[in-house]
Amino acid sequence: MKNVKSIFKREFLGYFATPVAFVFIVIFLLLSGAFTFQLGDLYERGQADLLPFFGWHPWLYLFLIPAVSMRLWAEERRQGTIELLMTLPVTIPQVVVGKFLAAWAFTGLALLLTFPTWLTVNYLGQPDNGAILAGYAGSFLLAGGFLSIGACISSITKNQVIAFVISVVVCLLFMLFDLPDVADVLSGWVPTVLIDAVANFSFQAHFQAISKGVIDVRDLVFFFSLITLFLFANGLILDAKKAD
Question: How far apart are CA 60 and CA 89, in angstroms?
Fold first, then answer.
């Protein structure tokens, strides 16, 4: 645990060593605000909730989270510091978890800074703050899912652009799994049971339920299982490359 904390501190503070962290946070806040109030018509809806706010988060994360995760391992490989990191008295799982938690905490900080939107809704009406809090929790879990995928892909290559593009594509697939068009394409040659199984891997389906204040254990299990799976794969990839 001590080693994980050390890695976490190193990585988290590293985000603020350059202007990249501040640029990411500003862009996230500006886009989330624009999407909520302009495209989501928060005022015009006449309802005291944050559904328009959370509804855009999957699409914001689709591009912003890979921008964070692409540097996790690709930058280490490009600079050649990954060899030094692996010689430290830490295990690969400890490094993987520490770097992931630092990135997750950083995105959580950006999400936390959107609290003025929450205050605005409370000023204008009497929202269900329990549902809003659940929405924030769901958004945080969604960001963790995107990050685990991006971190795993970042460990494959030392090119950040390649890591970014592949991460966006893979995350997009996880968002589209439950769309009717996808089911229609698969229905001709894939059993219905398999189509339903594929739809259950959709980020949208699990996130939308939580964002509405409905916390189902199955949705929580999905996100935590997904994060664990990709972090495990991340460790396997690093271990394989270390052995080369």
Answer: 37
Q: How far apart are CA 227 and CA 174, in angstroms?
A: 13
For residues 57 and 173, what is the distance between their CA atoms, to the nearest angstrom?
Answer: 16
Q: What is the pLDDT of residues 98-137, one digit of tens each?
A: 999 999 999 999 999 999 888 888 887 788 888 889 999 9
pTM: 0.88
Q: What are the domain boundaries of the chain?
A: 2-243
Question: What is residue 37's DSSP assignment?
Answer: I
* pLDDT average, residue stretch 140-154: 93
Q: Six-digit token pair at 21?
A: 């962290």
Kindly report the number of other CB atoms within 10 A of residue 214's CB atom.
Answer: 12
Query: In 3-state terms, what secondary structure has residue 213?
Result: coil
Task: Please report which residue ranges of the chain form alpha helices under DSSP H.
Answer: 2-15, 20-34, 42-45, 51-55, 57-79, 81-87, 92-112, 115-124, 129-154, 160-176, 180-187, 192-199, 203-211, 217-243
d(CA 157, CA 161): 10
- The per-residue pLDDT for range 171-215, each reduced to its tens digit, is 888 888 766 666 566 566 656 666 666 667 778 888 888 887 788
- The two three-digit tokens of residue 60, written as one number: 């914001």
